[in-house]
Structures are given as C-alpha cells and as structure tokens.
Design brief:
alpha+beta; globular; about 35% helix; 5 strands; Aminopeptidase; 4 helices; about 150 residues; 5-stranded mixed sheet
C-alpha cells in the first residue's frame, strides 16, 4: 500500500495544482482560458461558506492527485450538500488508492460541518473511475441534464 498524504491546497502548490488540473481538463478534452485558471485559483483561497475548496494528494512528497469540492444549500435538508466537482489522479499513480483517499478526505471534511451528502458525477465512458466509484459510493440512478 502506498503512503498517501492528503492535505488542503497551499499557495505554494500552484504549479503542481495547475499541472494536475490541466491534465484533468485534458482528459475531458476541455481547454479553459487563462482567466479561468486565475479565477479558480483565487477562489480556492477565498473565504466563504460556498467558495470552492481544494485538496492535494502527495506520495513521497510529489503531488499525484487533486480534488475540488464545494458546499451548497438544499431545499431538502438543513445541512448543506457537498459537490465533489473535480477529482484527478496522475496516471502514474492510478490504482494505488489516490482517488479513494481524496474521496474519503472530502467526506471527512464535509462531516466536520455536519454535511452527510457528498456527491459527484462522471462521464459514462470513464470506466476506470467508475470501478472506484461503484466500490466507495452508491449509484443513485439520476441522469444529468443541462442547458447550454
């Protein structure tokens, strides 16, 4: 078992965060303008109940994964919900528990605030990630729609 350290993002992590998030976006064939990188990084360090948060995974001091998550209100409960927005493990670190460790860390952070509903989405073709998700969470059966 690989020794994985999960901790909140720090300002000094910018280059590694950018490398990992770019790889995540590449996986989904997405290119974002520099202004969005700058805004996302700024928001990750902005105080506020609904601002996004970030965690980084380290193995032997090397950044190998990241996640972004945020809280939002729900009409169905007093407690907020937690949306795990981005989850990425460096391809060289896959299968070593990085993704599961990041998910568990988000669950623990949410739990500190009394949040019990942590959820996320993935593309139906993301078979590798879905194997992990099927193991650590329940599939709800909901189908996403959006207005673009």
């Amino acid at each position: 078992m690989t020794d994985i350290t999960i901790r909140p993002l720090q300002l000094a992590d910018h280059a590694e965060w950018r490398r990992l998030w770019t790889a995540y976006l590449d996986f989904y064939n997405t290119v974002l303008p520099e202004s969005i990188y700058e805004l996302a990084w700024k928001r990750l360090f902005t105080d506020g109940e609904f601002e996004p948060k970030g965690l980084i995974a380290l193995v032997d001091g090397k950044a190998v994964g990241l996640t972004h998550y945020l809280y939002h209100r729900s009409g169905w409960s007093e407690a907020n919900n937690c949306y795990l927005q981005d989850l990425f493990a460096d391809p060289a670190a896959r299968g070593k528990g990085v993704g599961a460790a990041l998910i568990e860390a988000v669950k623990q952070e949410a739990g500190k605030l009394g949040v019990t509903n942590v959820y996320w989405m993935t593309h139906e073709t993301n078979a590798t990630a879905r194997k992990l998700y099927d193991r650590v969470a329940r599939r709800t059966g909901f189908i996403e729609y959006d207005l673009l």
